[in-house]
Amino acid sequence: MKKSLCSVVVIAITLALGSACSRSSDDDTAPAAVTPADLVLRGGSIATVDATLGTVEAIAVNDYTITAVGSNEEISGFIGPETNVVELNGRFAMPGFIEGHGHWMSLGEAKQILDLNNVSNWDEVVRMVAVAVDKAKPGDWIFGRGWHQDKWDSVPDDAVDGVPRNDTLNAVSPDNPVQLGHASGHAVFANDAALAAGGIDDDTEDPPGGTIVRTPEGKATGLLRENAEDLLLDSIAEYEGRLTPDETEQLHRERVYLAGEEALAHGVTTFHDAGASFAEIDFFRMLEQEGALPIRLYVMVRYQTNEEMDALLPDYRMVSEGNDYLTVRSIKRQIDGALGAHGAWLLEPYVDLPDTAGLVLEPVDDIERTAEIALKHGYQVNTHAIGDRANRETLDIYERVWDAAAVDGKDLRWRIEHSQHIDPADVPRFGELGVIAAMQGIHCTSDGPWIPSRLGQERTGVTSYPWRDLINTGAIVTNGTDVPVEPIDAIASYYASVSRMTSDGTRFYPEHVMTREEALQSYTLNNAIAAFEEDVKGTLTPGKYADIVVLSQNILTVEEAGIPDTTVDMTIVGGEIRYERAGGSKN
Length: 587
Prior knowledge:
With 587 residues, the protein is an alpha/beta fold. Among the domains are: 145 residues, Roll (Urease, subunit C, domain 1), CATH 2.30.40; 127 residues, Diaminopimelate Epimerase, Chain A, domain 1, CATH 3.10.310. The chain contains 20 helices and 24 strands. An eight-stranded parallel beta sheet has the order 8-15-16-17-18-19-20-21. A six-stranded mixed beta sheet has the order 3-2-7-22-23-24, covered by helices on one side. It is globular.
């Protein structure tokens, strides 16, 4: 639906425009002059995601906010001699994608280490490590991330729990410690040099919430599941401590830059960072003051004790003000691990590992205390929960804390991050309690081919990624990629949300697909609501941030199979064009 200029004026930020829609009692009096826009996009199909505005042809921007939307003719009045006019030539524009759950610094770091996302088997991993060792000095650590054994074309015959032993890795890297992160971020693989550096031998006991995977003979294979990863942290910190403070800062600045490049190239204008320490938030605050944050960050406090948070949360609470690039008003906790690493906490044991029902990574009573502290200081709680037991326990925690405080949880917008496998009895509780299901569409189709190997077909069908049931029972469902667990590709996650098409060409329980409009809202307005920022983000409404992405084709109408071919042609943050695809600009 297109709006006339007079209707646009009612909600336009430039109040002086009102006189352009009416004349004084003297019919010869000309309309007052309109302040020219700094930027105009016209000649396209622009989805505002605002139910009162619908789809329009053009949009005008002044400074960092939207001035008006409407037809080409209506917005032509905002074009002055200095206005930058972008001709969309029929292309599709929409609010910038909001990444609903990712790991900002890890995204940048992933660009600095071995990228194992696309390896086909263990032999390829070993070859990549061997090349890195040839370039390294003795004693240097070799880092990588992204391998996933369930996506390989084969695994070695002597694999343990479906994962190789580290013998061949030791052969190519006897003197360089090697740590290779699982794609999920919930396990690492280490060679013997790294295990020795971490003080891990065949007699080391499993830490709480973690597993040192061993051969039948009791030898550590190199796989460290969930909290067992932490056994390497001190030795890695000691190694990284060789850098001077200036070198460390430069390394971190490079990570921010690399993460920003990736985000902007994929049309992401806001990023929900699922976990940063107070020290990292201090770093982000410094960059924001310098104007050096490439996109807007919504940061969740992580890695601090309850005592530290109770003392310091008031000093770190930041909500959107002006052209804001850093918001802090939430806390991230993690009750379980990942399904791929057998760390998701289940109501029943794993089909392929029946001696376990998963791992509890952070004690329930500790998370409950965090929730009480969050309530005290006006913070949102966002808890990682993947397994059906983990989701139930988290809902129970929230409900207990709210009942004890006699508050209505719906106003608090607390979230469950991932919400992947939910018992049918717990699905309606999300809507009833007002708990946001912070899901990632791409996880569904990426994991779909192997989920039944963990849960069995029947349990998979009734618990896995029940988007339709969640939406139908009143829950807000958001979207993202959990980058660097998956690439920060909003188009791919959108396609997964509307198709549930897996890499093997089958649809993963397609009765739970989102409509295209629902999927678009899950990546824009819903993510803004999940961050208490719907007043400034999520729709292309006059007065909100001019955070806009231009796509090569209309993802609301193009043939479904063609959605993945969509490219990001332009990304605009706060009225500034921050990214243009080579060959994609047509203005």
